[in-house]
Amino acid sequence: MSNNIEGKVVIVTGASSGLGAATARHLVAAGARLVLGARRLDRLQALAAELNIGLDAVVQTDVTDRTQVKALVEHAYTLHGRVDVLINNAGIMPHSPLQRLKIDDWEQMIDVNLKGTLYGIAAALPHMIRQESGHIINVSSVAGHKVRPGSAVYAATKTAIRVISEGLRQEVKPYNIRTTVISPGATATDLADSITEPDIAKSIRDYTATYAIAPDSFARSVIFAMSQPDDMDVNEILFRPTRQEL
User: Fold this and answer.
1) What sign results for the dihedral spanned by CA atoms 190, 221, 111, 71?
2) Could you give all domains of the chain from N- to C-terminal order, each with its CATH number?
3) Sequence-separated (6 or more) residues with CB below 8 Å from residue 224
């Protein structure tokens, strides 16, 4: 029986580490044809070598630049003649209390988390509409459901992703396109590296060390959503470590 993944052309942003890299590993095992994008080309190339998918499968991509996101999607189309799945995974999380006025961090979160997702949708949607098939998977967060001190702007971007995903879900029904938004809880990634305030970064790293689960948890959620029959649209997945209260 088909797993509904084998042979599909899947684009993953933010694929050089964390959730993106874990997802790439699971998708290769399931038989997908991958095209991976991220800023860190050396890590992308190392991942491509590990997965034996060839250097043509990686494209250095900064999702804050819509021309680069479009180039990533067009590269996938040129290689494979179609675009089946886009996973808008790239994201950053420079937490800080609003009173610290980390305005550059705020703008970067909006550019990467929110605009980067929109640029991905803009690049992939024309191909999927023409095919009358496709699947767009956007990455939100538990922070898109609950706000805590220090996370206001990050939570705002992740809430916006949920809202955009719901609007997209309704709009693409005539084209047989599926949409999924996945909201992970604490997972063991390098998101804390994007935090510019040392005390906040230490707090997040301590929390992650105590509660976080492996990024494979996210990858399994992607596999679950993708592997359902075409007439089933898994629109939202929210998961946490069993011990995580927030």
Assistant:
1) positive
2) 9-197+214-239 (3.40.50.720)
3) 234, 237
Q: Which two tokens stand for residue 212?
A: 């976080």
The CA distance from 234 to 103, in Å, is: 36
> Of 120, 113, 102, 141, nearest to 238 (Cα)?
141
Enumerate the β-bridge partners of residue 180.
Answer: 137
Read off the pLDDT of residues 122-150 as tens digits, 9 standing for 90 and up: 999 999 999 999 999 999 999 999 999 99
Structure tokens, 41: 């080309």
CB count within 10 Å of CB 22 equals 22
In this prediction, residue 244 carries a pLDDT of 87
CB atoms within 10 A of CB 86: 29
Q: How far is CA 30 from CA 4, 48, 128, 134, 227, in A?
A: 9, 16, 22, 17, 10
The token duo for 154 is 């990050």
| Cα(223)–Cα(145) distance, integer angstroms | 23
Total residues found in the chain within this entry: 246
> Please, which residues bridge with residue 37 across strands?
13, 59
175 carries an active-site annotation: no
* Short-list 239, 233, 243, 242, CA closest to 219: 239
Mean pLDDT per 10-residue section of the chain, whose length is 246 residues = 89 96 97 97 96 96 98 98 98 94 96 98 98 98 94 97 98 98 91 82 84 94 97 97 87
The catalytically annotated residue of 154, 175, 207, 211 is: 154
User: What is the chain's Cα-based Rg?
Assistant: 17
pTM over 0.90: yes
